[in-house]
Amino acid sequence: STKVYSVYALGLIEQKLFENLWLLNYWRNKAAHNISVDIRALPMNFHIFDNNLKIEKDMNENEIVIGIALCTYKELHVFLNEQYGIKLNW
């Protein structure tokens, strides 16, 4: 979380992207310390950058996690490309 805070504090990423990255890290920590964590009980106030993507609590846990991660990392790639000309290929 320190890295995410630092990048945000330096003004290198916008607030919505910071909030999503922070929440993903929070989820990772919760799952790392409790393998049986109920995803639906965790905060889900992610910013959805892709209008075609919907995250709903009645979805299965894999759909929720993958959807949020893909949406956030897609936005991170767009941001890096637009702001810094960095193109990530994967």
Shape: globular
Indicate the multimeric state: single chain
Listing every helix as H and every strand as E from the N terminus to the C terminus, the arrangement reads HHH
Average residue pLDDT: 83
What is the terminal-to-terminal distance? 24 Å
Question: Count the strands?
Answer: 0
Strand content: under 5%
Q: What is the helix content?
A: 55-70%
Low-pLDDT parts are none
Structural class: mainly alpha
Structure overview:
- With 90 residues, the protein is mainly α.
- 57% of the residues lie in helices and 0% in strands.
- Helix 2 packs antiparallel against helix 3 (61-84).
- It is globular and about 40 Å long.
- The two termini are 24 Å apart.
- The mean pLDDT is 83.
What is the compact description of this entry?
The protein is mostly helical.
List the helices and strands and how they pair.
Elements: H1 2-9, H2 15-33, H3 61-84
